[in-house]
Amino acid sequence: MTLGPQSDTAPAPLRMLILTGIALTVGGAASMAAIALVDLVALLNTVLLVEPRARVQWESVPGLVAVMTILVPTLGGLIVGLIHRHLSPAGRPLGPPDVIEAVQFHKPLPELRSGLVSTLTAALSLGTGASVGQYGPMVYLGAIFGGFAHRLRLGVPNLASIAVSCGVAAAISTAFNAPIAGVLFAHEVVLRHYATRAFAPVTVASVAGYVIANVILERPALFRIEFPGVAHGYEFGLVAILGLFVALAAIVFMSLLLAIGPALAQRIRWPEARTAMAGLAVGLTALVLPDVLGIGTSTLRFATIDGAFGLGELIVLIAAKIFLTALCIGAGFSGGAFSPSLLIGSLIGVLFWTLVSGLAGVPTSGAAIYAIGGMMAFASAVIGAPLTCILIVFELTRNYDVTIAAMVAVVFSNLVSHRTFGRSLFDVQLARRGIDFSLGRDRAHFAALKVVDFLQPQAVTATADDRPADVAERLRAQGWREAFVLDAEGRLLGVFSPGAQEDPPRLAQGLAPARLVFDDETDLADAMERLRGFVGDAVPVVCGETGRYLGAVSEADLVSAWLDEGARLRKEENASI
Amino acid sequence: MRRSDLVLLMVAMIAAPARADDLTIVSWGGAYETAQNQAVIAPFAAETGLDVEVVVYDGSWTALAERGVPEGWDVIDMLADQARVACAQGLLLKTDPGALFAPEALADFTPFAPDGCAVPQNAYARVMAFDDRAFSGVKPTRIEDFFDTDRFPGPRAVQRSPDGILEWALLAEGVPPEQVYGLLSTDRGLRLAFRKLDTIRDDIVWWQDPATPAEMLADGRAVMAAGFNGRFFDMAQRERAPIDIVWDGRVIGIEVWAIAADTDAPDAARAFVQHAADPATMARLATQIPYGPTRRSAFDRIGINRDLGVPMRAHLPNAPQHVGRALVRDSGWYANTEDLRQRRFRDWLGDDD
After folding, report:
1. Whole-model pTM?
2. What is the extent of the structural domain holding A459?
3. Assuming Cys at both sites, which of A260, A410, B143, B262 could form a disulfide with B249, CB separation 3.0 to 4.6 Å?
4. A-B contacts (CB, under 8 Å)
């Protein structure tokens, strides 16, 4: 499962050419697809009166705007739910966790059709104003282009994983006009190692995305920040405290997001009814609080203006946005958590600033620094990519002071959220699927190998009625010292080792309980941990449900598998080209 | 205009019975129309031999609806947003831009290409200008300075209208130009803009006639003014008043040529629009008055104004060498928010008068 495509390796210069070609192709395609997605969403937002500038055009017909505000997200939810149910084999939106899983374990992405459907529903979700983000779908769309490399056999080890990471980097680079952040995101979140073989093409793809978005098509950044600087030294301390506050809010948001999905699934049977209901909730809230609609580009801008929000207004808006985003994603709208995180975080930053500067009267250098710090602190806790978030600030503002301030906020927020929740929303979602990165990449890889795949065919079994001498003879023939004794249903009764004491007349009397038993769920990481201090030939493996004996694994085989996998990871993580 | 078109047109003209006036062009009057006549209309009449009559109107689409048919209007000089409304009302003749211009020419237009109803012809701007005598040391350089009465005290001349000043208020709050109209579309954005206006409320002297702000600067009634770049140019260059323009935050408006739906001379009208949108014609106009061309290639042809001896390129609102923020007046937004803007502006004014 974890062995990559290990076809014959091409010579180094050829590998270099192949990797560069793949990086440019995937990077360019991912970048243009990301731009197309953004444009499609903008078009839908205009036509469906989600965007403020489109809504104000119909200001003279107030009933129309109100009706559209309720109908558009509700019907959008209904359609998204129906499409997922009937057209997508996966039956759900796909996102960064699926990309991480594919890249880490060198598996193909989920079928292309599910991916395309997920992109379509993301455009619909975002286009109809659901409170979800665009970056998750952009990342997945970029990954799809890289995923095509899975079919290629070009003699470059792990080519597909590298190509997928290229698509991811180009998508982020395009989205934020931030090529450095694109490279870091692909490494921090997706690849989780820094081998040159991956780093070089990912960088090329990220730059290709940047060139297409900025130089050829001259696209404006999704948001632009001008920032004068940090006026007082103690403000770095203030943003550290802000980071701690933001982490708490991020933990509430992520826990809510993870809890709402199952809770809704229990209560509402039809998936399309769940999304329609979430859309209705967004529409009704937007009647009084239009800021919750969609991506909230205007709201993000307001957050950088001193005094754009009153205190009460801010608290209501933060709570509404947290709840609605968790609801929309939990209910099954297709979209990410990153851009809502940016918005929620910046609003919390502004709230903090309002309290500190307005109520406590501490002189500060304006709302913008707290908005940006809060924004990145929240987002980095959610996506688990502190370096990426710091670099995004740097690339968007080109301002050293604000980057340092944001870095402080990010670090303190990550400290708390990592400690109490987990490294990121993605990692916790993956952990729930049984892929646990909390103890590192290698541990997750060892955990993905099941001992049941290493059964030793020569293991000797016996039944309780066998004669000890016969079993001893068979053991001698195989060169084993222990036999596994089973009952009539094939369940493990114990271990028989001849010569330990006087051989009994019947095997059943000379049985020792097995000192260690694995089941079919036991993974390599777990097994190695439990093998500590174990003496013996082999460990029996039984079916977890029925208790039936499946076979035995020898200690030597497990150690070899451990060493092989470790060597493969080391090779991947240190490959030059 | 291409020579082949010209020949065709001549043939058409000879074939058709001659009328008292072959083409009625509608414009704004004043110095603008004089320059337009010299640079655009007279050369066209001379080239084609057509009898061209020029009519003056107030620039509103309602005037077109009322007077267009009785007075036989053919080609109208309009603001882009008024043309949008007129187009939506069916008052303008729809023409495929591809039939009027070659693809290279269409790509040459800036900031936007002709649409079915209107062909961009020149660019003017609402700009901030100041009396140099009022600030002996540091001069205003940014739109923020218009709202900074501590560093730059004194009365500000502002049009008694929400147009332009709301954009400035948000620019001064640090909103990037591309987001200004999006934010002004929200209640929160309007509130913030009027909050910014509150900071200079006591320093505003209102004007209604576009000629006034330049006069106010010249005679000392105001130290800073919001107004049209052409008026400030005239005051500074022709009257030698010590007025300087701050190009940061300029709100560029586009004037277009449009053809009336009920024109009785559609071929001559199209020929005129093609002639007027030629880079050489645009450059000729921009050399006489500071209205920038709407085609990039025209900038290369702009030289010195012979009356004043002033190189004109530096005085055009959309000249590529200007730094600072520029905003293109969003004609779609303007076309549909008239009531909202006026209502909110009156409410804000109502606070004290």
Report:
1. 0.84
2. 446-566
3. B143
4. 62
Q: What angle do CA A185, A191, A192 make, to 5 degrees?
A: 85
**Residue A533 lies inside a defined structural domain of this protein:** yes
Can you tell me whether residue A518 is helix, strand or coil?
A: strand
Closest CA to B180 of B249, B107, B235, B276: B249
Q: Is some CB atom of chain A closer than 8 A to the CB atom of B337?
A: yes
Same structural domain, A342 and A379? yes
Q: Are residues A362 and A387 in the same domain?
A: yes
**How far lies B231's CA from each of A247, B30, B215, B324, in Å?**
56, 12, 9, 21
Contacts of A307 in chain B (CB under 8 A): 195
ipTM over cut 0.85: no
Q: Return the structure tokens found at B331.
A: 């004609």
Q: Which residue of B has its CA nearest to A219?
A: B178
Does residue B336 belong to the interface with chain A, where contact is any CB pair within 8 Å?
yes
Do residue A197 and residue A106 come from a single domain? yes
* In a shared domain, residues A26 and A173: yes
Tokens representing residue B306 in the block: 């012979």
- For residue A222, being part of any structural domain is answered with no
CB contact under 8 A, A301 and B179: yes
Q: How far apart are CA B111 and CA A61, in angstroms?
A: 31
The answer, yes or no, to whether residue B6 has pLDDT greater than 70, is no
- The answer, yes or no, to whether residue B21 has pLDDT greater than 80, is no
- The enclosing domain of B263 has a CATH number of 3.40.190.10
In this structure, the answer to whether residues A323 and A452 fall within a common structural domain is: no
Asked whether residue A135 falls in the same domain as residue A247, the answer is: no
Judgement on whether residues B185 and B259 belong to the same structural domain of the protein: no
The pLDDT tens digits of the residues spanning B249-261 come to 999 999 999 999 9
Interchain CB distance below 8 Å, B186 and A52: yes
Cβ within 8 Å, pair B174-A226: yes
The whole domain housing B102 covers 3-123+254-305
CATH of the domain at A561: 3.10.580.10
Residues B130 and B117 in one domain: no
* Per-residue pLDDT tens over the stretch A1-49: 344 444 468 888 898 899 999 999 999 999 999 999 999 999 999 999 9
Task: Give the C-alpha separation, A521 to A542, whole Å.
Answer: 9
Is the CB of residue B222 less than 8 Å from the CB of residue B213? yes
Tell me how close the Cα of A170 comes to any Cα of chain B, in angstroms.
Answer: 24
Q: Are residues B173 and B278 in the same domain?
A: no
Whether residue A422 is predicted with pLDDT greater than 70 in this model: the reply is yes
Q: Which residue is closest to B343 within chain A, CA to CA?
A: A60
